[in-house]
Request: fold
Amino acid sequence: QRQRREAVPVPVVALVGYTNAGKSTLFNALTTAGVLESSRMFATLDPKLRQLELPSRRKVLLSDTVGFIRNLPHTLVTSFRATLEEVERAELLLHVRDASSPMLAEQKVQVERVLGELDVAGKPVIEVLNKADLVPEGTAVAEGGVAVSALKQTGLDALLARIDEELVADPLVEESFRLPQSEGRIMAALEAGAVIEKKRFEGNLAYLRVRGPASLLGRYRRFRYRDAGA
Reply:
């Protein structure tokens, strides 16, 4: 599966976090994939991967992983290496935290310790403060991250936008294109994989202002158009 994915590279975003932080619930909320939701330790034992579309129309693979626990023995980390290989390959980590936990800070330390053992501590991370609906009103929970409730499905749009911002492997760019209307295939590809911000027609030509991944827009560089009003 990885060989097939690497043939057509798609960024991987991996969920990590302390056990029972709500990773699988968030995974379900974002992808409606139906992954098992359970408070039982290690309920998720193998990588779960689903495609996710971001607001920019970029596609990513979202990976759910095993939950970490306090003082996780290194031998256990090794035995779970197959599951956690997705973390190693990920371009971005979502550190899912239980915002209602009285041990919030300690659990963060434990997760970061395991990530260090996996030599992935330097990867970009978005802090996701889950279960925000259980936090008393007026209590600050975001701490520079994104507050969500996977169960209530709140804050998900903000999280998707943040993922869009943080992915740098295939950056978002804006380009103007001038396409003959006979190039319907190209127009369809741009509409499917990017955001059309402006569109106008003159004769048999279509003028588009497009925001999307550089890899996609670069395929059609021969139709680029210098738009003086852009």
In short: Residues 104-117 form the longest helix (14 residues).
